[in-house]
Design brief:
Elements (H helix, E strand, L loop, with lengths): L1 H57 L3 E3 L2 H7 L2 E4 L3 E15 L4 E5 L4 E5 L9 E2 L4 E6 L8 H24 L5 H22 L2 E2 L2 E5 L4 E6 L6 E2 L4 E6 L3 E9 L11 E6 L5 E3 L6 E5 L9 E9 L9 E14 L1 E3 L4 E3 L2 E9 L2 E12 L3 E6 L6 E5 L1 H9 L12
Antiparallel strand pairs: 1-22, 2-24, 3-13, 3-18, 4-12, 5-7, 5-11, 6-10, 7-9, 8-9, 10-12, 13-17, 14-15, 14-18, 16-17, 19-23, 20-21, 21-22, 22-23
Helix pairs in contact: 3-4
């Protein structure tokens, strides 16, 4: 019995010893594997860090634009500074001539139109009494009215002179004499009305006022009849700007104090504050079928502004303080995003994305992307953009996207 217990004890001790050795060997192997993995992980991390740093060193968003290039294109840079900016309601409108400042030139004879100056067109300045066109019917079947009037007058004049002698000798009756005198007076009036304007080339049609041609209603070589409009002349001393504003802005209209407008024919932005402009009125509705409210300003026509033209209008409301804004000329747009170019140093520039707010036609509010002290390119933007596009890119990179 004792021998059996001793044998079992020996076997148990041997089994326990073997298990401990196996466990220690397994731990050593695991430790070695873990140590190797850590080493590989460390090496991989070091390699990544090296490559990343190398990659960053090959990428730069700085644009090289030399001082000589900047001087050549007249580059201008403005330093960003928060300031006052007026809230804006953008809409459309029309330039109108003030009442009493227009005159219509009409033909005083039938015939073919010939412009005295072929370059006379909308916007051309004219003087009072200046010949705009001549009208001639010399080569028409019906004959020249001016010549006819002159012949009728001369014939009536001779007949009247003869009648004056005959009435003295009682050869003709007083009634007949009065008929002859009446025909003479009528012919004389018609002739004198045209005599001053009759030339060898036809009847001169002149402008009754000084101003600018607003509308040219006939062309060279057109046939016109007596009383037909030829052109409209506007003095353009004072013009009106009529803006159509959505009813949604009705409560804001009481705060409107000024406006800027932009023409389509020269894209110039005019400021009413520079044109002695003032608000005349704003109505409750422009018509029974309209959902727009008319807002009317009056201003001096200092620039080349054409009455009747349609314009984009920027109504200026309450000013906002501490607003960052940039001139419209500083902005570029690519795929729906807006950018400006910042000057980093004398010959270094950077393309900067910005988020825009309201525009008054001259400047645009910048909501994000700029801070006070930034130097923004306001003239020469296109040349800086070209310099960025033509820059040499790192290997493996392109603008093909």
């Amino acid at each position: 019995m004792k021998t059996y217990i001793s044998f079992v004890t020996v076997i148990a001790v041997l089994f326990f010893t073997a298990c401990n050795q196996g466990k220690e060997e397994h731990n050593e192997d695991s430790k070695g594997i873990h140590t190797q993995a850590e080493g590989e992980s460390h090496n991989h991390s070091e390699d990544d860090g090296h490559d990343h740093a190398k990659g960053e060193s090959n990428h730069t968003d700085e644009i090289s634009f030399t001082k000589a290039q900047a001087d050549a294109v007249g580059l201008i840079v403005e330093t960003v500074s928060p300031g006052a900016f007026q809230q804006v309601i953008k809409t459309s409108g029309q330039i109108q001539a003030s009442q009493g400042d227009e005159a219509t030139i009409v033909s005083t004879s039938n015939g073919i139109v010939s412009f005295s100056n072929r370059s006379i067109t909308e916007g051309t300045a004219v003087r009072s009494g200046e010949t705009i066109v001549t009208v001639s019917a010399k080569n028409l079947l019906e004959g020249d009215p001016a010549t006819k009037v002159k012949i009728v007058y001369e014939t009536a004049q001779k007949e009247f002179s003869r009648a004056e002698k005959l009435i003295k000798d009682n050869i003709i009756s007083a009634k007949e004499y009065e008929q002859i005198r009446l025909r003479y007076e009528t012919a004389k009036t018609a002739y004198e009305a045209q005599a001053a304007n009759i030339t060898s080339s036809g009847v001169r049609i002149t402008s009754p006022i000084s101003g600018f041609i607003k509308n040219r209603l006939v062309s060279q070589g057109d046939y016109v009849s007596v009383g037909q409009p030829i052109a409209t002349v506007s003095q353009n001393k004072r013009l009106q700007l009529r803006a159509e504003v959505s009813e949604n802005y009705y409560k804001s209209l009481k705060n409107i104090g000024g406006a800027n407008f932009q023409t389509s024919y020269d894209n110039e932005v005019y400021k009413l504050s520079d044109l002695n402009g003032r608000l005349l009125s704003f109505g409750k509705a422009s018509g029974g079928q309209s959902f727009y409210i008319p807002v009317t300003f009056e201003f001096d026509n200092i620039g080349d502004i054409i009455p009747g033209s349609f314009v984009s209008v920027y109504l200026l409301s309450n000013p906002l303080d501490n607003v960052i804004s940039v001139p419209v000329s500083a902005l570029t747009e690519e795929q729906g995003l807006n950018f400006v170019y910042l000057q980093l140093d004398e010959e270094g520039y950077k393309k900067q994305e910005v988020t825009l707010g309201q525009s008054n036609g001259d400047k645009v509010q910048v909501l994000s992307g700029l801070k006070a002290g930034d130097k923004v390119v306001t003239k020469g933007v296109y040349q800086v953009k070209l310099a960025a596009v033509s820059s040499i890119m790192p290997e493996g990179h392109s603008h093909s996207h």
